[in-house]
Amino acid sequence: MNAGLPDASVPSHWAPDSWQQRQALQQPQYDDALELAAAGAQLSRLPPLVTSWEVLALKQSLAEAQEGRRFLLQGGDCAESFADCTSPIISNRLKVLLQMSLVLVHGLKKPVLRVGRFAGQYAKPRSTDLEIRDGVSLPSFRGDLVNSPEFTAAARRPDPQRMIQAHAHSALTMNFVRALIDGGFADLHHPEYWDLAWVEHSPLAAEYRQMVAGIGDSLRFMETLAGPIAGFSRVDFFTSHEALLLHYEQALTRQVPRNPGFFNLSTHFPWIGMRTAALDGAHVEYFRGIRNPIAVKVGPTVTPAQLLPLIDALNPDDEPGRLTLIHRMGNAQIATALPALLEAVKREGRRVLWVADPMHGNTESTSNGYKTRRFDNISGELDKAFDIHAAHGTRLGGVHLELTGEDVTECMGGARDLSETDLDRAYKSMVDPRLNYEQSLELAMLIVRKSVGGNAGT
Fold first, then answer.
1. Which phi and psi (to 5°) does residue 390 adopt?
2. Side-chain-side CA neighbours of residue 38 (13 Å)
3. pLDDT tens digits for 351-400?
4. Percent of the chain topping pLDDT 90
5. Tens digits of per-residue pLDDT, 135-162?
6. SS3 helix, strand, coil % of the chain, rounded to 5?
7. What is the pTM of this model?
8. How far, in Å, CA of 23 to CA of 30, rounded?
9. Phi, psi of 269 (to 5 degrees)
10. Which of 141, 191, 407, 415 has its CB 3.0 to 4.6 Å from that of 203, i.e. a possible disulfide?
11. H/E segment holding residue 70
């Protein structure tokens, strides 16, 4: 089964471990090569986390998003933790994405492609290899896939066995999400299942519930005329993560019967972060050989001269649905940094899906030491992204967000106008600040207003 897309063979001179001949940035320094090899061998024998036919189905849907027939909603935690692999946290995260997608489907009048940023988002890039506290220097915390956040030598030691634990927690997360969806959790007949109790008094709750009531009335009317309509009881849902730790990704890269090439079966939709997207680097070498749809984060310092060769390396055959470019410029820089890239890719006629990440370029630190993001900057960058794409005859086909279904206060502003003093109340993120439920829903409504207003591109 190839989901209607052309077959792809393995690129020449490529193997799942060929990345090891290139410079690999953002990798931990393991102190026992034999222990690392043993963990990799054990991981390679474990069952895959996704299937090749799911991967190819996602690629087909992303190809439709490139043509403007779908909209991509990609969201989840900045960095998952093993401790957060619990049913309430997973179901609340799913609820947020389902509610946002319902707003988008209702407003955009097109299918929404739902991709969770979870079930594998256990590794994070860091600015420095070492963290120093009171004169003590230890390896930086690189996510639960690598080490622990506690500031002790034992906790910060990169431990290869954590790759096995990450596989287990990812499998538990995926299985629970699949069980929820297959069991009717996403049924449009019962959107009340998606409510989060802590937001019942949200300023946005009334508008959202009015929208849900309207959809329910329409659904009941159609079924009165035509009988039960297939497809409303479940949704397609896919997973994604930054494929940062290459030993982990290599061990879960497999060949499958009746499909040529190699698939990364740790996730449906892996992406390359901005810090590891060097054309001659290990991550690009690894990514060019897998058949998954892939994405690359594109920051404000990237030039057309850098981006076009990267596109050529990662999608030399201009395959539909293969390559997504996630621009993350920052509210202050997007107007100057994005247009030249759009013009260059359009001029070369390359087929990509443009997606906006309005989170990562807008991080700042407060006077009391918190990393935060201002909702006005997040929404401002997204607003400008729609306008810039429209002005250049390109299409913004999706958003990439860090969000949670928990009652957190990590990003300032939004419906309740959270301030710097509110951050103390419920700041839970280990790495980057996330949108809470209200802020996520407000952003979904902004997307609809921009699109319905005629600024969605061509």
1. -60, -40
2. 7
3. 999 999 999 999 999 888 899 999 999 999 999 999 999 999 999 999 99
4. 69
5. 999 999 999 999 999 999 999 999 999 9
6. 40, 15, 40
7. 0.91
8. 16
9. -140, 85
10. 415
11. none
